[in-house]
Amino acid sequence: MKPKPITATTLVWLQRCARRIWLDRHGDAAQRVATDPVLQHQIARGHAHEEAIVAAQFAQRHPLVATAWPELVAETLAAMQSGVPALHQGALEVQAHDDMILCGSPDLLFRVEQPSQLGAWSYAPVEIKLHREPRPDDQLQLAFYRWMLGMLQGNVPEGELWLGFDAATHQPLQKVRQTKPPHVQPWLDLLTTVRTGDEAPINFSRQCSYCHWRNACEQEATQRQDIALLGQLDRRTAAALRKAGLTNLAALVQLTAEQLAAYPHVGPKRAVQLLSHAHALLRGAPYPHSAAAMRLPPAALFLDIESHPVTQMPWAFGWMDASGQRGSFVVVPQRPRQAPARLDIAGSSVSFVPDAAAGWQALAALVAAQEGVIIHWGHYERQMLQQDATPSVQDALSERMIDLQRKITQAYSFPIARGAGNGATTLKAIGGYLGYTWPAAANWAAAWDAYHQWCQQLATVRTQQQPWADAIDTTLADGLAYLMSDVVALHGVWQWLQNNAAA
User: Fold this and answer.
1) Which domain holds residue 185?
2) Which of 50, 58, 306, 324 has the fewest CB atoms within 10 Å, i.e. is most exposed?
3) Does residue 291 belong to any structural domain of this protein?
4) Longest pairwise C-alpha distance within the chain
5) What is the per-residue pLDDT across 49-104, written as a single tens digit (0 to 9) for each?
6) Distance CA 106, CA 127 (A)
């Protein structure tokens, strides 16, 4: 029987998670689940970005017409042998060993004037990515294609990553060249070892939400009460604990904090966090890290920001004040003339600002006459304040910003298991445990899509005089509903901490 092909994606997943590779060989296929909606969104955006770059850079690229893989492989090789200038999504296939076939489809193959078995030329691969900085996955994928090309044409070419997109020039923001020899063989050897070895341990990470085995791993970890359920558990720590026979929560809590701190990448602070989380999971109730958490100062505002998925530039600032009044500042670079500066949508005040700096200015004005702190979740809001706000606004707000995630996780561990792509300390995890909900099928990607579609509708408003309110009602409200759910949950988590804190 012909062996199952190995692709760049196979090696990328091997780099991320050996268990994924082991389950692909030994797992029950009935336990696989569909692609995550956020991943589908990212894939679609990535394909659109790739098409835009290729259309701008290689309008005269050689067309490939075959659709079936074997015919596409043959057509690609024939085109390379004839010396065409560039190929988009060509198909490569090489026999690495008797039981190993490598398949790949580089985003671009372009001819370089370097002799090879093909003739007086050879081909080099380009991978096109929407994100702006190179990632380990990108480097491995590019190395894989270079290695395959070396086997096909007799020399190993250099390769490039084209990263980001400059809308003004239709050029990548950055081109990163890869010149060092691609070390792919060690990955292929490791692949064989993992596939034929013992069951790989569970290790949860952000990438797990994109894996078709995510539910199977969560169920298995829960059944075993595996240490993988612990938030902030480093893989190197987990490996050392497993080697010592400490594979489940009940065994882990037999250690003292001093004993656990001696394991790799733990230390005194993380030892307390890990043990507290284990106790919370075993007891099914929040577990305090110390005798009493301190009450936070009174809050003037609860703040959550939604941002562009690539640039991270804010597009909406959601807020709730101490009285419970809710609102948002939405970035509208070109507001139609007939559009009001403020509207009420679903009981919330919505104001429009031209850019992120103006959004921060509006927030500063909102809290200028109020005493109290500004509650947010995580480090992002403070980063955006430093990036986008004017110096005077930074001076006015910086000292008032309090990261509630940091405060509550310093004080408590919750009985929330770390899962496939879901951290145990996210707002949705802790807010969900406390009973707060979000709109069905809502996520940051869907919220961005709603905002992006709304911005496109504004062009129709400007050119065809479509009523402004129609554009609001049909699209923007969906994105803002998700944003305001974050704000309400943020307030609820703060209230829980205040109610359970020492005076």
Assistant:
1) 8-192
2) 324
3) no
4) 80
5) 888 888 887 766 788 888 899 999 999 999 999 999 999 999 999 998 778 899 99
6) 6
